[in-house]
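Reviewer 2 asked us to include a model.

Predict the structure of this chain.
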Amino acid sequence: MLRYRILMTLAWLAVPFVFVLRLMRGKDSAATFAARLGFGRRRTGRQPVIWLHAASVGELNTLVLLLPPLGARFPEHELLITVSNRIAFGKAREMAGEKVHAAIAPLDLPSAVGRFLRRWRPVLAITLENEIYPIRIEALARTRVPIMHVNARMSERSHAAWARHRPFARRVFGHVRHCFAQDPASAERFADLGVPPGRIEVIPNLKRFQTGAPPDHPDLAHLLARWPRKRTICAASTHRGEDETLIAAYARARAAHPGLKLILVPRHPNRAGEIARLLQEAELTFAIRSKNERPTARTDVLLADTVGEMALWYAASAITFVAGSLLPIGGHTPYEPAAFGSAITHGPHYANFREAYSALLENGGSVQAENAERIAEAWGRLLNPATRTAQVDTARRVLLEGEDRTRTFSRITDTVAALLPSDSRAPVASGTRS
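Predicted model (structure tokens):
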């Protein structure tokens, strides 16, 4: 822990340069960067605070599911949502109200975490999915604030990285009071790293309970009016080295099925320039989302180089290729395309969601393809409405049905109730500006 604290303290030297760079790139404003350093306005509420952290939009979409059961079970508490980027912060602020607050999370620096905790004084901290902040965890444990992880995931790669520093890992993970893991493999990895086995519990992945309702967005209506959903494919969360294969697959499929459209969504939007060059080389017409270019009926590809709009693209696409799976990256979630009724295709590398993809493949709920030719063939078969409907129905049954939503959220809120300090129902004094 000492080595980590020294490294993070030295990171202060880079703060001015990072601030200027993020400001120039539009990733922060002066206010949001100050919030990352723990500064902020005086807290106005007087009830005890339950802190919920979601790093980005994907985790925030899962966190949203927790708000109603927590609000109903603990009306004498306020809920604080923190996120790590501006896009997610904008969405979190839309949820804010009298008893729900939104803030930018502090950097994992001692002074930033200290200022943040003195202002908000949470009585319980809940982290969604796979975010681990050692200094934050140590500070919470030192002030006897219980720490929960919900829908927690630990990938093989993350486990290997932590395992190289096992004494440090055991100290950090030993502070976790309860860990709701989203799969048995993650549960085993958390236990190996130091979470006491009696504090680990496997529950259904909360993404199973997302509804997949099409967002009410004018750009979605515009797109659907020009691109029929049944002829549109989404390449979701692509990584460098995958785009070439997927563009080639689209060109093959389009040659066999004229009028086919592609929504290409890079995992990292800053790669839009290099992807645009690949599309030009393939002689495909395209519109770029970040430039507010709207595709027409003659446009081949929409390059969706934005963050936080995956619901739009799943709602617009009858078929999805879940990327991060053509290379040994580990794949991305199949739950969201399944919820939106988009037929799932993917590559052979899905270690991050092994249990889910194995179940899909075993039951015919997805198609695995390793190269452009096989991907194009899979897309061609799924353009048949009967084939696609059967696969979508199977995926929904495998991933989204058969679990008791009420029982799952009751188990989470019961654990929250058990961990909350007995005196946390009493009002607390407002914090001061720091």
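Confidence is low (pLDDT under 50) at residues 426-434. The first helix runs from residue 2 to 10. We have added this to the supplementary material.
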